[in-house]
Automatic annotation (TrEMBL):
Native source species: Deinococcus indicus
Protein name: Cytidylate kinase
Catalysed reaction equations from the record: CMP + ATP = CDP + ADP; dCMP + ATP = dCDP + ADP
Single GO BP term: pyrimidine nucleotide metabolic process
Keyword set, alphabetical order: ATP-binding, Cytoplasm, Kinase, Nucleotide-binding, Transferase
Gene of this entry: cmk
Main subcellular location: cytoplasm
Coiled coil: none
Top-level taxonomy: Bacteria, Thermotogati, Deinococcota, Deinococci, Deinococcales
Gene3D superfamilies xref list: P-loop containing nucleotide triphosphate hydrolases
Localization terms from the record: Cytoplasm
Broad EC category: transferase
EC code(s) of this entry: 2.7.4.25
Binding site for ATP: G7, V8, A9, A10, S11, G12, K13, S14, S15
Any one cellular-component term (Gene Ontology): cytoplasm
HAMAP family noted in UniProt: Cytidyl_kinase_type1
């Protein structure tokens, strides 16, 4: 059984997915971390992030592995744990360019589809493209200001700068971010984290 939780940047996908997954006793899968890992490695290798061949060669010679756990996902490249380096402002700013490359999307999708069920999968296109047959789909939204205020607790920049970056990323991610027609859309603005998790669990039960 697969539950998909998609949504715009900083709408609560990973926190909510983690809470839902823990309540269900299954792992959750954060697809965005794979896009972030490809971006980080491209930046570190000084590659042009718009160039798929260079990135794919790098990912082929230095394979990246997602470790899905209920409490939090980790991403490995060999023995190196990349996880703590994936949420920098530098990666935030480059990731949508990398995620627009069809070859990189195929690389991510193949890894996700190889994972053993059951799990909760979160990202942008889990319910539309990657797992269209999932029986339970959710889509999280909130205003850019609310999302920026939440993310400001995790980043050094101020709220207006974060809000501008989120809006820019929303725009670049538009193509892959449409909600599945059969997803329940949840405006998380008026809800706290537990409120969103409970809304989803109620629907699942
Ligand atoms: N409903 C909510 N109310 C308050 N804070 C929230 C809510 N959902 C998420 N958050 C907080 O917002 C931040 C971004 O959430 P996160 O799960 O990282 O979002 P995403 O995975 O969509 O980027 C985190 O600090 C998280 O704790
Ligand atoms: N399924 C997905 C997941 C992420 N992404 C891309 O990866 C980026 C980072 O995703 P994320 O979920 O880690 O980002 P946040 O929403 O947590 O800020 C997004 O801005 C998209 O460009 C995507 O295209 N498709």
């Amino acid at each position: 059984m697969i539950v998909t939780i998609d949504g715009v940047a900083a709408s609560g996908k990973s926190s909510v997915s983690s809470g839902v997954a823990q309540a269900l006793g299954v792992p959750y899968v954060s697809s965005g971390l794979l896009y972030r890992a490809a971006t980080l490695l491209g930046l570190e290798a000084d590659l042009d992030l718009r160039g798929a061949p260079g990135l794919l060669k790098l990912l082929g010679t230095h394979p990246v592995r997602l470790e899905p756990l209920a409490g939090g996902n980790r991403v490995w490249q060999g023995e190196r744990d990349l996880t703590d380096d994936l949420h920098s402002t530098r990666v935030d700013r480059g990731v949508s360019v990398v995620a627009a490359l069809p070859e990189v999307r195929e690389w991510v999708d193949a890894q996700l589809r190889a994972l053993p069920e059951p799990f909760v999968a979160e990202g942008r296109d889990m319910g539309t493209n990657v797992f269209p047959h999932a029986p339970h789909k959710f889509y999280l939204t909130a205003s850019a200001r609310i999302r920026a205020e939440r993310r400001a607790r995790e980043r050094p920049e101020d709220v207006p700068a974060i809000e501008a970056d989120l809006q820019r990323r929303d725009e670049l991610d538009t193509v892959q971010s449409a909600p599945a027609p059969d997803a329940l859309v949840i405006d998380t603005g008026p809800l706290d984290l537990q409120g969103v998790i409970d809304t989803i669990l109620t629907r699942l039960r």
